[in-house]
Write a structure and sequence with these properties.
Family: Belongs to the NifD/NifK/NifE/NifN family.
Radius of gyration: 24 Å
Distance between the termini: 60 Å
Strand content: 5-15%
CATH class of the largest domain: Alpha Beta
Keywords: Nitrogen fixation, Oxidoreductase
Bound molecules: iron/sulfur cluster
CATH superfamily of the largest domain: Nitrogenase molybdenum iron protein domain
Structural class: alpha/beta
CATH architecture of the largest domain: 3-Layer(aba) Sandwich
Helix content: 40-55%
Protein name: Nitrogenase iron-molybdenum cofactor biosynthesis protein NifE
Pathway: Cofactor biosynthesis; Fe-Mo cofactor biosynthesis
Largest sheet: 5 strands, parallel
CATH topology of the largest domain: Rossmann fold
Number of helices: 23
GO molecular function: nitrogenase activity
């Protein structure tokens, strides 16, 4: 029953926020705050489950519902693949009014059969949406029957949009993996240096920047859940020795579930920032040695860290004179709210503030510590910044660049301030040592772009001197064009 599943997700014991709640508050779940009038609602639970599982690249992702559900969620993240492309196809049962009257279960079965005949995938993921859930289509039963008759795993992902937020959908996607996928295949080659990475979505293919480090150390990524994933790797993920959680909010239930069921410890780490990448590698090596890997792994990891850090800092030194003194507003969430701060500070940049809208308490503490190191001041953590206030900050020259997701880009650009995408739609990978160098390179391109001199100069038709009563957008002396 979906209600029982949601209740268990709301009761997540490893969620720090949840532990601080009373039993009554826990029952109400997360994200129950009403919407601000005029604000976008954000993704639904179906969207969250789809985002979480779409990077499984070799399966058919079949959306059971009206075509708009698939249309709205199709390819919204720029997640990369090193092989199969089937995950980029949009499959839907395209329910119509007649299906609402007669039910959509037969149509769903026919769609599964057609997908198997045409594409021969290793598995099919079937997503429930609002309309079939409301008319009572039992996708669990259809998937079970289809799986038996067609001879392949057909996985129900029961997360209709109306049950809650995108974040809840992430967790329901993880529940589907726990219930139907992980542990269903026994790999014959399990070893003492196998790990899983949970919550790494391979945005812009950036995991390719990190994987060679693991390959060199002889650490095998059994499954990346779910970035550039293959079905069989996920099915055998229970044999790994350590789980690394990249974003604790998205799939913490999966880390806890795998620890309870298969005894795999998990820790939270990050591949954003040089220091954090090194710390993550160290932690993985230590945990693997504790769980049976040979002790020399720790020394080999330290040698690799020393070499890679030296290489990265040497390469980044060229950018220091061009970036030192520039001010950055980080408007993102989760681990990125603190993990890139150190590297920017090392470039001599000033991080004027970082948002902690979607961050855990632990993220907030780390962000505060990182900023304190920068300025000695406390309190530069932002919640949501209203657009007029954000515009004022840029207009008054309080930041030279904003790093954020696409939705807030126009506020910065309207105020003639550089902006860079750091969220899921971006087209550059920023993970690991090479990724940090790429981040710095892109920031240099944005901040020192000659376009700013053009757009901040007076227009040819402007009077030579400021007319009385005309307020310049950027007060004189606050910020010179590069
Ligand atoms: S809220 Fe329901 S109908 Fe709307 S996109 Fe999500 S699943 Fe589809």
């Amino acid at each position: 029953m979906i209600s029982e599943k949601i209740a268990s997700v709301f009761n997540e014991p490893d969620c720090e926020k949840n532990r601080g709640k009373t039993a009554g508050e826990r029952k109400k779940g997360c994200g129950t705050k009403g919407l601000t009038p005029g604000a976008a609602a954000g993704g639904c639970a179906f969207d969250g489950a789809k985002i979480a599982l779409q990077p499984v690249t070799d399966v058919v992702h079949l959306v059971h519902g009206p075509i708009a559900c698939e249309g709205n969620s199709w390819d919204t993240r720029n997640v990369g693949t090193s092989g199969p492309l089937i995950y980029r196809w949009g499959f839907t049962t395209d329910l119509s009014e007649m299906d609402v009257i007669h039910g959509g279960e037969k149509k769903l079965y026919r769609a599964i059969k057609e997908a198997v005949a045409k594409y021969a995938p290793p598995a099919i993921f079937v997503y429930q949406t609002c309309v079939p859930a409301l008319i009572g289509d039992d996708i669990d039963q259809v998937c079970k029957v289809a799986s038996e008759r067609l001879g392949l795993p057909v996985v129900p992902v029961n997360a209709p949009g109306f049950v809650g937020s995108k974040n809840l959908g992430n967790k329901l996607g993880a529940e589907a993996l726990l219930a139907h996928v992980i542990g269903t295949i026994e790999p014959s080659d399990a070893g003492p240096t196998d790990i899983n990475i949970i919550g790494e979505y391979n945005v812009a293919g950036e995991f390719a920047l990190v994987k060679p480090l693991f390959d060199e150390l002889g650490i095998r990524i059994r499954a990346c859940i779910t970035g550039n994933s293959r079905y069989r790797d996920l099915a055998g993920a229970h044999t790994a020795r350590v789980n690394m959680m990249v974003c604790s909010q998205a799939m913490i239930n999966l880390g806890r579930g795998m620890r309870e069921r298969w005894g795999i410890p998990y820790f939270e780490g990050s591949f954003y920032g040089i220091g954090d990448t090194s710390q993550t590698l160290r932690t993985i090596a230590t945990l693997l040695v504790e769980r049976g890997a040979t002790a020399d792994l720790i020394a080999r990891t330290e040698a690799l860290i020393a070499r890679e850090e030296a290489k990265a800092w040497a390469a980044m030194a060229a950018y220091r004179p061009r970036l030192a003194g520039k001010r950055v507003l980080l408007y993102t969430g989760g681990v990125k709210s603190w993990s890139v701060v150190h590297a920017l500070q090392e470039m001599g940049m000033e991080v004027v503030g970082t948002s902690v809208r979607k961050s855990t308490e632990d993220d907030k503490a780390r962000a505060r510590a990182a900023l304190d190191q920068n300025t000695g001041k406390v309190g530069e953590l932002f919640g949501a910044i209203a657009n007029p206030e954000m515009y004022r900050m840029f207009r008054d020259g309080e930041a030279d660049i904003m790093l954020s997701g696409g939705r807030s880009q126009f506020v910065a650009l309207k105020a003639r301030t550089a902006w860079m995408d750091i969220n899921q739609e971006r087209h550059h990978g920023y993970a690991g040592y090479d990724g940090m160098l790429e981040l710095v390179r892109q920031m240099d391109i944005e901040i020192n772009n000659p376009v700013w001199a053009q757009v901040r100069a007076p227009a040819p038709w402007d009077p030579p001197a400021a007319s009385p009563g005309v307020t310049p957008l950027i007060p004189a002396g606050r910020r010179a064009a590069p």
